[in-house]
Amino acid sequence: MKRLMHILFLSCLKATELIEKKFDFKLSFKEKIQLKIHKMMCSACSNYEKQSHSIENALENDSKHTHPNNADTCQLKEEILANLSKK
Amino acid sequence: MSNINLTYLVNTFTDDLYNWAYYKTSNIDIAKDLVQDTFLVASEKNKGFQNKSSHKSWLFAILNNKIVDYYRKKIRVESNFDNLGNYFNDTGDWSSKSKPLDWGESESKLSESVEFQEALAICLNELPEIWNACINLKFLSSKSGDEICQELEISSSNYWQIIRRAKLQLRKCIVINWIKD
Predict the structure, then answer these.
(1) To bridge B158 with a disulfide, which of A34, A47, B55, B154 should be the other Cys (CB 3.0-4.6 Å)?
(2) pLDDT of A27 higher than 80
(3) Across chain A, what does the average pLDDT equal?
(4) Which of residues 25-54 of B touch A (CB under 8 A)?
(5) 3-class DSSP state for residue B94?
(6) Distance between CA atoms of B136 and B24, rounded to whole angstroms?
(7) How far is CA B63 from CA A4, A76, B99, B154, in A?
(8) B159 CB within 8 Å of a chain A CB
(9) Has this prediction a pTM greater than 0.80?
(10) A62 and B117: CB-CB below 8 Å?
């Protein structure tokens, strides 16, 4: 019975994979239906999806706040020139 | 290429190249190495260089190749880590200790929570580098999934499996660091 459910409406292993796939790719119609029904039956995967969204949003905010580092490049320039003259 | 020419290029373009490399790798040492390598390649290819109209775009093309190489190598080295067995049992169900429980917070609250952001930062640092490779390409370049796969030379199913593994680990770490119970 359980195996049949997994075939029809995915195992949690497969469901989490589709949840991640959905962020970057389009799911097929079949995958969409399977995932939807799986989540109706599985609170753990529903929680996983919500939390995965939260993490995704937080990462997105975080990367927007990352600014290029205007480090002192004088030393780097000297190193590069020294290396090049060795050749 | 004469030394004067090369010196001029280093002095003129190092800042821009470095900022770009840092933006793409978030690592000072790696960014510096990549810029070093860029000029090494530039000095070796001096014949091709003579005909180039724009020095800047030529140097940036070399640097971009170096950045993609850097991530590609990472994928090779680290795509073997796999511990899905820690999260799922043989039948593909969540193992009892890893079942995601309700965090009891609304999404909007989470993104404002300083504690949550702090836990996330800690956890990102502890992740295998592969996650950083994917995340850097995913969030810094706003590229599509297909483009990222192309650059990393991995299949799309390989890509979301890597992301899933990394997310599982990230989630587990956040639960430990953030939900103190």
Answers:
(1) B154
(2) yes
(3) 84
(4) 26, 28, 32, 35-36, 39-40, 43
(5) strand
(6) 7
(7) 52, 16, 43, 21
(8) yes
(9) no
(10) yes
